[in-house]
Each structure stands twice: as structure tokens, then as C-alpha cells.
Amino acid sequence: MSDKPIFVAAHPRACSTAFERVFMTQHDTITCFHEPFGDAFYYGPERLSARFPDEQARLSSGFSKSTYGSILESIKREASGGKRVFIKDIDYYLFAPDQKPTSIAPSLQKPANGHEKDAATDCDAEKEQNPYPTLAEPGNPTVMPREIQEQFHFTFLIRDPHYSVPSYYRCCIPPLHEITKFYYDPLEAGYDELRRHFDYLRDNGLVGPPIAMRPDLNSQNAEGAPTCHEICVIDADDMLEAPAATIEAFCNSVGLEYNPGMLQWDREVDHEVARGKFEKWRGFHDDALESTGLTARTHKRAPKSEEEFDADWRAKYGGEAAAMIRKPVDQNMSDYLYLKQFAMRV
């Protein structure tokens, strides 16, 4: 069974922080990293995002010197402490935005002299670095070399864009905008990057071919040598229908011990840990911070027509905003449905 660091790759607003809180309760055996690569993606000398163009804002963040390499080093240090490492991150932090070509991050290159390169000498944070002035690995859509990706146990968390996209939009308008400081960018929906990364890992034998909790597909997909990591995809709405069964199945898939107490975090120590982890993304995680556990829905969610979704968005946000939400929902549905076909069933 794998004891590699677990990497839960998600898109924004996939209920991933609530999912993460389950594992943050296991202080004695698990060390959690909350969206670490966003530090490099948004603020550091290797930053790929157009957000935070003001240098002072990046300096004030405390992450202006963070590189992909320095983040990985901090993860390695924690991994040496004997606890299982659990990383939850937004997968597009490993990609150049808007489907631009992505090459290996300078701090993750292996130069001829064997020493890690200084990202600050290779990247000018005042200039657009999409892609970096480095070589890409053939077929690899991310900034992270394959040999590093092989060190992780990748899993995936998804949610229907009809719910994730408007949830993200809400975080980018008043009153939450005053806290998050994020403007709305539909390119940050995150499904395209998640699908491309999933396919890369699957095609290169880093996950699969067995699929967690899917005997119906495994019987059809017996060809190919299995890796040590079965494909593990969780749909957030499935998780909210059956949280205990979903978390237990996830634990079985990644080699963690399951106990029902993981789903409750009503102790002050749990809230203190969460506040510290989530502080850097204030406003995005209020619901998860105020929660005391992962509980099943009391009523099954009723299906809606597209017209009903549009009407709901118009009522909440107005006609112009509803149109802004509708477009990325439609654009990302095919990627969501593609990943959904691999989702575990409990």
C-alpha cells in the first residue's frame, strides 16, 4: 500500500476545503498542506497568474520569494517527520493560464552542474512568464517534472460547474470581494487543467488502470499493467450524499486508516488548526471554517433544468452576471462529465 504524500487535485469551489478538514483532524498521523502551490503561482518569482501585478501586494503577502522548488522542499521536510503528508491544491496552479504552453518551473530544473537553479535569476516577476524560458517535458502539461510527480499519490475532486462556477463568482463580488480581493476570472474554473493533468497521469502510468469503487469499469479495463495507485475521483455532490461511505472508500484507496470521528471537528484545537491553514485565502473558506463536521444532506438535491439554473442566477446576481456564469458552465461541462465517468460509486 502506498505511503507517498497524497495530492488531492481539485478545481475551485469543489467542496475541497470541507474534504480537507476531515484529514486535518488527524493531527497525530497526517500533516496537511493547504493549497501550497498557490504561493508560487500568484506571488513568487515564478508566478504565472496575472493577479497581483503590484509588487508591494506580493511582498505584503509573505510569499513573494516562494518558488515551486521551495514549496516542494518544505513538503519533503514534513514528509521526513514520520506523518503521512496530505496536500489539497488547485490543479491549475501547476499550469500556465489560458492553455498557454507550460514548461518546467526554473526552480524544478536539473541544471548540468547538479544544483537547483535560482528562480529569481530566470524569471522577472514584472514580465509575463508564460511559458518560462525553460524546456517543457514532452507530453507533460504542468510545471512539475514527471520524476517529481511520481513521488505523489494523486487523487481528484470534482463538482458540477452549475454549482462551482456561481460559488466562485459569489466570492469575487461584494460583500466577499472586500475580503478575498479577487476579481472574477472565468479562466479560473479549472476543469480543463484538471482533465489534462488527469489524462497525463493516466496515460503515463502514474495512476490506474484500476478505478476505485468501479468494478463495472475495471472489468472492461483489465489491459495494461496496474500502477500502485488506482484512479480515485470523487464527485463532491456524491460525497455530500454519503460522506461517511465516501471518506471510508477514499481512505481505503490511498492507504489511510478510516475512523468515523474524522468527520467531526468540533474541538477548539481543530478550529485553531483550520484558522491557521486558511488565513491566506480569507473569505473563500468561511463555510468550512464555521462548520463542525461533514454531514450528509438531509434532503436529496432535486434536479434542475437549465432554464431553472438561469432563473436562479438572474434572481441572485442579475441578468448580466447570470450570462457571465452561464458561459463558463457550458464551456466546462464536457471536462466535468469526462472526469465524472471515473468517479467512485459508494
UniProtKB/TrEMBL annotation:
Residues 104-142 are annotated as: Disordered. Residues 113-129 have a biased composition (Basic and acidic residues). InterPro entries: P-loop_NTPase, Pyrrolopyrazine_biosynth_F. It comes from the Eukaryota. PANTHER family: SULFOTRANSFERASE DOMAIN-CONTAINING PROTEIN. This is P-loop containing nucleoside triphosphate hydrolase protein. It comes from Penicillium desertorum. The lineage of its organism: Eukaryota, Fungi, Dikarya, Ascomycota, Pezizomycotina.
